[in-house]
Every structure is written in structure tokens, then in C-alpha cells.
């Protein structure tokens, strides 16, 4: 890991605008480990929610909003999360004419860091749909009575039976760890697929097996997508993880075999 990465290091919190705080991390290294070296075998995006966004208006009055950022999965880089937080914090004492000026600034800087167009939606606190709790629409696999003793990813837990189905399964038991600090990352995971019926006990063991795995959110979801694709060969597959927030940001990667698919699902209770 690059020693200049701000994550895990003591840093100053700057309250005046500084786009140079953003730290991109290339996706290619982790994708090479998954055998992805050419065109992507999926579509999707990484949805970030910013709950601690503030700036000053032209009269110096603080303004507060909630933001949603959508980073396309074909961008060359992800944005390291601590650098993202430091960057947003740098807006705190910066004056903007209006909401559109803030949006334009964010889209310009984040797109430059990611290497692709990043979409930004801003909502005033009393009008934000992002502050309404929702639940996954599907069947939970968390109540299955299984024994588990493996806490590093095991794709061989995945298997299929006979008979084609189209179903949506979810689990709130996904946990991985930050590859830099070792801090736990908690998530709800939803899997929609069409194809041979996936063995649910094996799927749950597989989800739990990430419990001691160290990787970034986006890479974990791509690993899950690739493992299910390789082991079960579904005709359609969508994998979406909604991670709990840390430092006012949550990260929610979505990967799909269908280019037209959209993530859906709003903020979960734990977020």
C-alpha cells in the first residue's frame, strides 16, 4: 500500500477548500487478482452517501445537506475513503453562491480523482429521501441453522442444484476489514439471480467467510460477484452491498450482469 495514503495516518482536518486532499486508488491491482485484466464482466456503480456535508453561503451562514455520489464501476480509480472525508470537511468554511455551485464543484473534483464522470445529488436535510430507513425486499438466509468455522473467503462453499429459479436473497451478516487499519466494515448484502438454484446454506457460509477478509468495500463485492458467476453460472446476477457509515460516509457497491439494472434500496436502519 502506498505510504502516502492518508488512511491510518495522523492528519490535520482542513476547513478551507482543497481538492488536492482526494486520494485515488487504482482498481486494476485488485481486479487482476480476480482474473479481470481486460473488459469488465459486470456493470454497476459505487454509491456513497455523505451525511456530514456543510459549507457557508455568501453571507457566511452555515448550510447543511445530505449528498449521494455515484462512481461508475468502470472508472480507473476508487477514492480512498478518509481522503474523501477530509475533502468534504474542507468545504466547511468555504463560501458558495448556492446548492448548484456546490454540486458543480463536487462533480468536477470527484470526477477528476476517479478518472470518470461522477454524479452528485444534493438534498436539504428536511427534504432528503436518503434519511428514510428501508428494508431489503427478498428472502433472508440469516436464520439458517449452520455451523461455521471458516472466516476467509471460500468460493467452494457455493454450489447449485437443479431447476431454474429467479430469486432475491439477502444477509445482514457480511463483515470484512479495512486492508489498511484493520477496522471492521459491516454490511447488508443482497443477491438477485436467475439460474440454477443456489444452495442457501452454502451461500450463507460463503458470506460469513468474509468475516476476517481484508479488502476495500468495492473489491469485496466484485469478488462475490465473480465467485458466484464462476461457481453457479447464473443467467442474471446482481450483487449489492450497503455498508454502514464511518466518519459520515457509507459506501454501497453494486455490480450487475445487466447494463440497465439500477441499485434501488434506500438507507438501511444500520446506516
What this model shows, in words?
The protein is α+β, with helices and mostly antiparallel strands and 271 residues long. It is built from five helices and twelve strands. The chain is 21% helix and 34% strand. The chain has two domains: 19-131, GTP cyclohydrolase I, C-terminal domain/NADPH-dependent 7-cyano-7-deazaguanine reductase, N-terminal domain (GTP Cyclohydrolase I, domain 2), CATH 3.30.1130; 133-268, GTP Cyclohydrolase I, domain 2, CATH 3.30.1130.10. It is elongated, with a radius of gyration of 19 Å. The strands form three sheets. An eight-stranded mixed beta sheet has the order 5-3-2-11-10-9-8-7. The chain has a two-stranded antiparallel ribbon with strand order 1-4.
Topology:
Blueprint: E1 24-26, H1 28-33, E2 43-56, E3 62-72, E4 77-79, H2 81-89, H3 99-114, E5 119-124, E6 133-134, E7 139-140, E8 160-177, E9 184-198, H4 200-208, H5 217-232, E10 236-243, E11 249-256, E12 267-268
Parallel strand pairs: 6-12, 7-8
Antiparallel strand pairs: 1-4, 2-3, 2-11, 3-5, 8-9, 9-10, 10-11
Mean pLDDT: 94
**Helix proportion range:** 10-25%
Q: Using the coordinates shown, work out and report the CATH topology of the largest domain.
A: GTP Cyclohydrolase I, domain 2
- How would you describe the shape? elongated
Instruction: Please count the helical segments.
Output: 5
What can be said about the biggest beta sheet? 8 strands, mixed
Amino acid at each position: 500500500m502506498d505510504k502516502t495514503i492518508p488512511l491510518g495516518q495522523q492528519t490535520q482536518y482542513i476547513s478551507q477548500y482543497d481538492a488536492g486532499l482526494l486520494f485515488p486508488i487504482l482498481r486494476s491491482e485488485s481486479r487482476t487478482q480476480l482474473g479481470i485484466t481486460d473488459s469488465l464482466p459486470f456493470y454497476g456503480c459505487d454509491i456513497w452517501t455523505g451525511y456530514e456535508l456543510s459549507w457557508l453561503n455568501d453571507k457566511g451562514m452555515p448550510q447543511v445537506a445530505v449528498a449521494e455520489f455515484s462512481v461508475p464501476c468502470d472508472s480507473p480509480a476508487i477514492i480512498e475513503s478518509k481522503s474523501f472525508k477530509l475533502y468534504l470537511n474542507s468545504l466547511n468554511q468555504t463560501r458558495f453562491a448556492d446548492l448548484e455551485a456546490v454540486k458543480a464543484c463536487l462533480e468536477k473534483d470527484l470526477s477528476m480523482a476517479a478518472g470518470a464522470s461522477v454524479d452528485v445529488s444534493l438534498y436539504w436535510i428536511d427534504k432528503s429521501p436518503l434519511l428514510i430507513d428501508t428494508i431489503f425486499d427478498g428472502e433472508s438466509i440469516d436464520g439458517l441453522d449452520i455451523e461455521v468455522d471458516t472466516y476467509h473467503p471460500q468460493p467452494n462453499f457455493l454450489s447449485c442444484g437443479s431447476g431454474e429459479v429467479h430469486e432475491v436473497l439477502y444477509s445482514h451478516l457480511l463483515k470484512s476489514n479495512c486492508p489498511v487499519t484493520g477496522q471492521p466494515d459491516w454490511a447488508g448484502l443482497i443477491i438477485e439471480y436467475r439460474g440454477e438454484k443456489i444452495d442457501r446454506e452454502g451461500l450463507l457460509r460463503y458470506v460469513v467467510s468474509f468475516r476476517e477478509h481484508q479488502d476495500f468495500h468495492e473489491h469485496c463485492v466484485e469478488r462475490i460477484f465473480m465467485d458466484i458467476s464462476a461457481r453457479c453460472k447464473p443467467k442474471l446476477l446482481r450483487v449489492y452491498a450497503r455498508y454502514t457509515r464511518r466518519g459520515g460516509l457509507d459506501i454501497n457497491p453494486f455490480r450487475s450482469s445487466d447494463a440497465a439494472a439500477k441499485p434501488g434500496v434506500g438507507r438501511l436502519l444500520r446506516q
